[in-house]
Amino acid sequence: MLRMCTGSKAFGAVALAVFLLDRVLKWIVLEGYSLQTLWGITFRFLANRGATFGLHVPYIDVISFIVLLILSVYTYKHPSCGLSLILLGGFSNVLDRLVYGYVIDYLHIPFLPIVGHTYFNLADVMIDVGVILLAWQIIKT
User: What is the pTM of this model?
Assistant: First the structure.
């Protein structure tokens, strides 16, 4: 994991900080704290027992763990900013599944067109940004 992104210690530090912030926010909502802003943004606990957007996939925890192990080996051999973000976000969510039996979601932003109907967490954001960076890397080559 230390070889997160070729030549970018700052990127690795920021990515690790976001990972740790996600873990702290998950702990905070598990303690029962919640918040709603004037704009309707909600910060509260929601147990996501399914996959992305709450879809139900059999054995998702086993599948996720195996995929993360394979990606870890590949990323170690071929460091990539995008893959590193996907791994960190994936590890945070898989850790939830292994410890609690579900992923801890806590953010709801109703005015975002794509995610306005669902809850998500910073690990999900890391995965999404990682996919975008990976796509950009592939397009550039």
Answer: 0.84
